[in-house]
């Protein structure tokens, strides 16, 4: 049965400095999940975000659907299929991952680490990416067909492949190291909640949770706070992601966690005035993909 490709553009921002003729000076960022895709273009000479798009993929229900839909998106798009980018960095969203301290990591047994937390299928292979700030390695699974598809799209260009969790951890660790307190960090994704704790430059905790209802957010946050000996009334919480400052969900968060604030953009990129229409706490995972070399 043939897949039906459906994607919907939710947000598009284009800096007036963006020029397709200068793609050879730009870095392409892709953040790919089973339900959505974000696209970013960075001027590598100025570390400036020039272009950003956010797509949802409402009809994807399998890896075949995802590849088919990505194929249609690439055919539709004006320039992301170009092969002469200065760099290409691609982050994947899935739940088959594990974080390993760099001091304990051995590349030859990377699949063994992943098996402690997830069971890759025969159609998947193990990949890993080191993280400088957290001194850890994210080991994750990737669909073999998806990896082959990416290699075919950019046959003449090496690309950096990483996991969304690695981008989130590195981006938030850069922010955490400039703070003197120890808040809990949240990233509210579409149907996912990511929770991170860092203290004195060290990664203390990371996990992601499936969300089926709003009460799941509260339940998982309370569970992690209890695990980390944090108090919901006094402990600070910093939040990024798909939640508006005036949304009903934010007001519900505030009922349970009174010290919740929104996080800032990471400082690895510069933003023109046209990005003012995007709230600062949105898309930190996409922006942080650029941290990897």
Structure description:
By secondary structure, this protein is α/β, with parallel strands linked by helices. It has 2 domains: 8-96 and 120-164 and 269-289, Protein of unknown function DUF3822, N-terminal domain (Nucleotidyltransferase, domain 5, 2-Layer Sandwich), CATH 3.30.420.250; 171-262, Nucleotidyltransferase, domain 5. Helices cover 25% and strands 32% of the residues. The protein is built from 7 helices and 15 strands. It has helices at residues 63-76, 110-115, 144-153, 164-176, 214-227, 248-256, 284-289; strands at 8-14, 26-32, 36-43, 48-56, 87-92, 97-101, 124-131, 136-143, 160-163, 184-189, 192-199, 202-210, 237-241, 260-262, 270-271. The strands form 3 sheets. Strands 1, 2, 3, 4, 5, 9 and 15 form a 7-stranded mixed sheet that branches. Strand 2 (26-32) and strand 3 (36-43) form a beta hairpin. The longest helix has 14 residues, at 63-76. It is globular, with a radius of gyration of 19 Å. The mean pLDDT is 92.
> Which sequence of SSEs, written as H and E, runs from N to C?
EEEEHEEHEEHEHEEEHEHEEH
Q: In percent, how helical is the residue content?
A: 10-25%
* Beta-strand percentage range: 25-35%
Cα separation of the termini: 39 Å
Say what the CATH topology of the largest domain is. Answer: Nucleotidyltransferase, domain 5
What is the residue-averaged pLDDT?
92
Q: What is the CATH top level name of the largest domain? A: Alpha Beta
Blueprint (SSEs and pairs):
Layout: E1 8-14, E2 26-32, E3 36-43, E4 48-56, H1 63-76, E5 87-92, E6 97-101, H2 110-115, E7 124-131, E8 136-143, H3 144-153, E9 160-163, H4 164-176, E10 184-189, E11 192-199, E12 202-210, H5 214-227, E13 237-241, H6 248-256, E14 260-262, E15 270-271, H7 284-289
Parallel strand pairs: 2-5, 4-15, 5-9, 10-13, 13-14
Antiparallel strand pairs: 1-4, 2-3, 3-4, 6-8, 7-8, 10-11, 11-12
